[in-house]
Amino acid sequence: DTQKLYLGMDFGTSGARYAVIDEHGLIHAEGKRDYPLCVVSIERKHTVDSWKMTLFLLLEDVAVTLRPFIASISIDGTSATTIIVDSNTGEPLCTPFLYNESFPDALPMVKSIAPVNHTVCSSSSTLCKLISWWNSFDSNKSSAILLHQADWLLWLLHGKLGVSDYNNALKVGYDPENDCYPGWLVSQPFSQMLPSVKAPGTSVGSIKETVQMQFGFPRECIICTGTTDSIAAFLAASANKPGKAVTSLGSTLAIKLLSNRRIDDARYGVYSHRLDDKWLVGGASNAGGTVLRQFFSNEQLEELSQQINPMESSLLDYYPLPGVGERFPIADPKLVPRLDPRPESDVEYLHGILESIARIEAQAYGLLMKLGATKVEEVFTAGGGAENAAWTKIRERVLGLPVRQAIQTQAAYGAALLALKGARENSH
Ligand code: ADP
Cβ(21)–Cβ(412) under 8 Å? Predict the structure, then answer.
């Protein structure tokens, strides 16, 4: 039996990465490409050509010696990045709608058809993008089909148009619990544009012969459905049992918890993605690294943190926000940042801020539990703050839980795990 390898690719906001792993999760190769600037148009909008070019650059970056062993490929893309194409030719009928682009023109209609507080009721949702396009496109719309970024890139590899996964499809209105599009969506005139949906990491079929031959992948190489970039990053941490969680300490504080129960609460911006028979519950606070950066450089953070005694609790009680307003774990658009009194000692000040963010993190996990999620048992950490050993100790004390740095945090690694999952299921 020859060695089998699995290729995952992550199409993020600024560039794309790949990771090649084996069945044990060991990395054999990884790399990064920026989207080529030459094909990003004058308004700095992404074009599908820039995605396509980047995809093929990444495939070329995979060493020729590894390519014959790639048994399976999967891709994640940014959530709610959407493209509408002709279902006969695959030709784009518009430039891509990016994840953060807002279409308030479609919001009244979306609100009139969707249940109250549904995830699609946000002006940057995929459904708002779809309806805004539907209302403004004059030509023949009967052969139009909606794809997410990952779907479109995967289509270049498998050639079957109109396939998505239930993570990407959540923001167009897919019901992951009943595994179908809800009636209120199916009854719309544009419903024929909705892609078919599979579980993330499901084989769609074999790799296209042209791609297989061009790069020297095996003929049996399969292409699997993907997911969104933030879910792929969660998958990378291998927090694969209910009660395991990942806290991302980047510019903001984002938490994700694997739960047996689905939780949705629009007040807090809390919602759940399906992961097979479990739910990935998430929420994000505005508190976090942005505030740290306002006061300290990364070097200062490191130097001052080493002087903190993490076993001692800080009595300084702050709520470090970069501006007014918070959603999770406190839903209050008028919440004012609280960052004083500032002690004379910078070590004490930083200790107070780090401990206050830890308290917000504890409150966040507590709220998920109160809303019905599985109780958190272990926390993995990703993002810039994961490197901070003193903070990790503070968080262990405040959370009363084991806290570890996640070994893998790259979304491309998570996408490779999906490729592995798809290959395993396909061989059964
Ligand atoms: P993002 O991708 O969300 O911008 P990163 O995951 O790259 O963020 O993390 C950067 C953040 O981490 C910055 O806001 C910075 O203040 C914070 N950071 C960097 N080094 C440390 C450290 N040693 N301790 C705590 N926070 C840190």
Answer: no
Distance 91 CA to ligand 1 centre (A): 40
State whether 258 and 215 are in the same domain.
no
pLDDT in tens, 185-242: 999 999 999 999 999 999 999 999 999 999 999 999 999 999 999 999 999 999 999 9
According to the model, what pLDDT value does residue 36 have?
83
Say what the pLDDT of residue 266 is: 87
Q: What is the pLDDT of residue 404?
A: 96
Whether 385 lines ligand 1, by a CB cut-off of 6 Å, is yes
SS3 15: strand
Contact 384 CB / ligand 1 (< 6 Å): yes
Tell me, in angstroms, the distance from the centre of ligand 1 to residue 289's CA: 5
Residue 280 near residue 176, CB atoms below 8 Å: no
Same domain, 340 and 220: no
Burial string for 90-126 (b: 16+ CB within 10 Å, else e) reads bebbeebbbbebebeebbebbeebbeeebbbbbebbb
Q: What is the 320 CA–ligand 1 centroid distance (Å)?
A: 14
With respect to residue 130, please indicate whether it lies within any of the assigned structural domains.
yes
Number of domains, the chain = 2
Instruction: Let me know whether 152 and 254 are in one domain.
Output: no
Residue 412 has pLDDT above 90, yes or no: yes
Q: Distance (Å, rounded) from C-alpha 80 to C-alpha 111?
A: 18
Residue 378 within any structural domain of the chain: yes
Identify whether 237 is part of a domain: no
Both 220 and 270 in one domain: the answer is no
Q: Residues 377-384: what's their mean pLDDT?
A: 96
Co-location of 328 and 378 in the same domain: yes
For residue 289, the enclosing domain spans 242-405
- Relative to the CA of 387, which ligand 1 atom is closest? 23
pLDDT at 43: 55
Binding site membership of 289 for ligand 1 (Cβ less than 6 Å): yes
Q: Going by CA atoms, what residue is nearest to atom 8 of ligand 1?
A: 250
- Residue 293 CA: nearest ligand 1 atom is 16
Q: Give me ligand 1 centre to Cα 400, in Å.
A: 23
